[in-house]
Write a structure and sequence with these properties.
Low-confidence stretches of chain B: 1-22
Largest sheet of chain B: 4 strands, antiparallel
Oligomer: heterodimer
Distance between the termini of chain B: 59 Å
Radius of gyration of chain B: 26 Å
Distance between the termini of chain A: 59 Å
Order of helices and strands of chain B: HHHHHHHHHHHHEEHHHEE
Structural class of chain B: alpha+beta
Order of helices and strands of chain A: HHHHHHHHHHHH
Largest interface: A-B, 61 and 69 residues
Number of helices of chain B: 15
Shape of chain A: rod-shaped
Mean pLDDT of chain A: 66
Chain lengths: 265, 282
């Protein structure tokens, strides 16, 4: 058995990369000089890697065990083995501990399960803080909620601009066909968009999205008009709307602001 | 009033040329010109025309709407919020007020009241609180949303019942997300109770994120939010944390999908600086 005075509690942390820097360096320097410790560390690392690799098999093995019959079975085997000569100790404590498991797959599975459990427990206990079932309430910092609202403002503005484009293009297409447009439909869409715009106003101002606000305000004025219309809109009037929107290059401006917002999301 | 007067009014002057002025009455012409000025945010000039219209043609069919646009101008000018409030309230009281403009006026009243509150007039909040029970749900919802932003948490909490109703019954995802975030601000426990009442068998309910700085026992960042807001939470993650994840080759969307499938499993990421990010779902 290794007689070095290194703190063995540090070994698992060292292998998982969680050891504090100063102690990690001390251990790394010691391992360079001490072949015994190096061998043990290598062995431990291999076991941990294998344990990780056989997680699924362990789960299957554990599921296949008849837990009710297991105590009786173990007792029978212990009694059957009583009186057999003790085996000589091996060079490594880890190898000596692991060897019998090679002969008994169920025990090997259980032992590997213990290793995996211990590693999981190590990670669970290593990092402080609440775990599943311990804190069930909702909470988020004001800073986080602000950032979440900024994300939402960008997405919703983009959505608003896209929908506005559809409404305007609807109007344009109708004008192009020379027929009356179903203005009641546009009016309903316009009202829906106006109600969305209310929420955007506050956010666009809060997050200083000036360009987006300017274009959204212009669209809002158009929709205020559209929202008051019922019945069909004559082709001549649709043509005038198109003329107005083209003169102000509203669709171009919408596209430019959309591009900017898309790059930020 | 003719069916399409409003829309024609806005675009007539610009696109049809001066000859068409002859076909419209002077009050209509004034109104159209004023609206074009409103569109261009020339508030003062528009206000002059609107006042001119109301003074010269008090019986004009456009005199009522002129009040609404007057409210818009006064809001835009700045410093005249109380005058703007009065204009909108006057418009709402008109018997021939248009439903869409009334809705807009209500929203503007809420915005103006909130602005006055932020400038130190706590009594202005009465205009918002009074609209929490409005018959029009668009107005009711907006009042609740704005009230949730009030810095006095006790007052803001008055918005909780309406916000809970939105989370409980609304289908619109945009409104739902806003209501959830607003409730997280004013009353997280109310959000929890309403989310828990929703039947969502088998699907994740809560996303938890913790970030520990190296050597610290208390997390530097803690978050417990409804799973429904997970997408927004990722969007709102600190850019440094996102960069750290990207550097390590993690795809956040993939991570969320994997976590959602495996339920309660924990993703742990250790940064080069020793910080630890944990993400898990319950």
């Amino acid at each position: 058995m290794n007689k070095c005075a290194l703190n063995r509690d540090d070994w698992a942390a060292f292998l998982s990369g969680d050891l504090e820097e100063g102690r990690r360096r001390t251990m790394a320097e010691h391992l360079e000089k001490c072949p015994d410790c190096r061998a043990e560390t290598d062995e431990m690392r291999r076991v941990l890697e294998k344990a990780d690799a056989v997680k699924a098999e362990i789960r299957e093995a554990v599921a296949s065990v008849n837990w009710e019959a297991l105590p009786v079975m173990i007792a029978d085997r212990v009694l059957a083995n009583a009186g057999k000569p003790e085996k000589a100790p091996r060079a490594s404590w880890l190898r000596a501990w692991a060897l019998p498991l090679r002969m008994k797959p169920v025990l090997a599975g259980l032992a590997a399960g213990l290793v995996v459990g211990a590693v999981a427990m190590y990670f669970a206990l290593k990092v402080p803080g609440p775990r599943s079932g311990q804190d069930t309430g909702y909470y988020a910092s004001g800073d986080f909620l602000d950032r979440a609202e900024l994300t939402m403002a960008r997405r919703n503005t983009l959505d608003y601009l896209e929908k506005s484009q559809y409404v305007l293009l609807d109007v344009f297409e109708s004008a192009g066909e020379g027929a009356a447009a179903p203005a009641a439909f546009s009016s309903e869409q316009a009202r829906d968009l106006l109600s969305r715009k209310k929420y955007l106003n506050a956010q666009l101002e809060r997050f200083q999205m000036a360009k987006a606000k300017a274009i959204c305000d212009q669209i809002e004025m158009l929709f205020l008009e559209l929202a008051q219309i019922s019945g069909d809109l004559p082709a001549a009037e649709l043509g005038r709307i198109r003329g107005f929107v083209e003169e102000r290059q509203l669709l171009l401006k919408i596209n430019l602001v959309k591009k900017e917002l898309q790059s930020e999301i | 009033m003719k069916k399409f007067t409003a829309i024609v009014g806005l675009f007539f002057v610009l696109s049809a040329g001066s000859g068409l002025y002859a076909q419209t009455s002077p009050d209509e012409t004034l109104f159209r010109e004023a609206k074009l000025l409103v569109f261009d945010k020339s508030w003062e000039a528009a206000l002059i025309k609107l006042d001119d219209l109301r003074e010269k043609f008090p019986d004009s069919p456009y005199a009522g709407q002129a009040l609404f646009y007057k409210g818009e101008c006064l809001s835009g000018i700045g410093g005249r919020e109380r005058d703007a409030l009065r204009a909108y309230k006057d418009y709402i009281r008109l018997t021939d007020a248009k439903a869409s403009l009334v809705e807009e006026s209500e929203g503007s009243i809420i915005d103006l009241a909130f602005g006055l509150y932020e400038k130190g007039d706590a009594s202005a909040l009465r205009d918002i609180e009074g609209r929490l029970g409005h018959v029009n749900k668009v107005v009711r919802y907006y009042a609740a949303y704005k009230l949730s932003l009030v810095s006095d948490k006790k007052v803001a909490a008055k918005a909780a019942p309406v916000l809970m109703k939105i989370v409980e019954s609304e289908k619109d995802p945009e409104l739902l997300d806003r209501a959830r975030i607003a409730l997280l601000r004013v009353s997280p426990e109310s959000l929890k109770s309403v989310e828990d009442r929703k039947p969502t068998p088998g699907s994740p309910r809560m996303l938890k994120i913790r970030v520990w700085n190296k050597g610290q026992k208390e997390p530097a960042f803690s978050l417990n939010i409804p799973w429904a807001l997970a997408d927004l939470a990722l969007g709102a993650m600190d850019e440094e944390d996102r960069a750290e994840l990207r550097k390590k080759g993690y795809d956040l969307n993939k991570i969320m999908n994997e976590l959602a499938k495996s339920k309660e499993s924990i993703l742990k990421i250790v940064g080069d600086d020793g910080s630890i990010i944990e993400i898990w779902i319950e």
